[in-house]
Design goal:
By secondary structure, the protein is an alpha+beta fold. The chain has helices spanning 17-28, 62-73, 82-89, 91-100, 118-121, 145-150, 203-216, 250-261, and strands at residues 2-7, 32-36, 54-58, 78-79, 108-111, 126-130, 140-142, 158-162, 169-176, 179-186, 197-198, 220-228, 231-239, 267-268, 274-275. It has a domain at 108-162: ATP-grasp fold, A domain (Dna Ligase, domain 1), CATH 3.30.1490. The radius of gyration is 19 Å and the shape is globular.
Amino acid sequence: MKLHFVINRRVPDRPSPVLVEVFDRLRREGHQVEAAIPEECLVRPDLIRPEADLYVLKSHTEFAFSFAGALHAAGAELLNPYGSWVATQDKIVVSRYLKEAGIPTPRSWITSDLSLLASLVEDGPLIVKPHRGHRGAGIHIARTAEDLAAIEIGESPVIVQEHVTGPGEDLKVYVVGDDVYAVRKPFSPTSFSVPGRPCPVGEELAEISRRCGQVLGLGLYGLDVIESPDGPVVVDVNTFPGYKGVPDPAPAIASYILAFARGEVSLASPGGAAVPAAA
């Protein structure tokens, strides 16, 4: 099979060790693997045609967003599926789906006018996030009305979450099909680039994690989780994360990609309606 990975520019500019091993494993099994950064290509959108058996989306940029849409319109098979990928890019949409499915998430609000949150912040700190944000960019914590007034969000909507009390470390959950892994690490503006410490995954967290994938129609995805006094709370979902800190994730990722490409697994569309995998 021919497998095409849509990837993003990395900072620093060096390949992901996990992806490198995934590529090597797929090639050793006789498959053709190619990867491209869409921003570095010159393509006529009206002439885009599927040239690979499966396109694997590993970029979250606006350019990749549109490129994937053009591929989908041309009939390409995508992993994660395009509808699921689009829904997961929007934290507002994700919040709706997860809440409706009974998955523990923070109370959330959406607005483009932060002054409307003045009465809410009196009840406790609020987390302000871009509705399409990645790697912690643009996240603010507001404890007072003055904090809210100091945040500049431009014209884009934001999602605002209640601050959930936790142990002070990030719990990153990584999922490959039914396999669930987790790592812990201190939060910082650059913590996305740092591997965490592997940790056990309890039954409750594993069930919540798999349920997120079922609700959003994802097979390769990650969760940001706060371990609150009342149990795990999902504060973010992202598609095809880096799996940093997970011991040897490449075999499982490569196997899952091949199983999806062969039609051996299927994913639901966001909200739970079943759709077929690649043929």
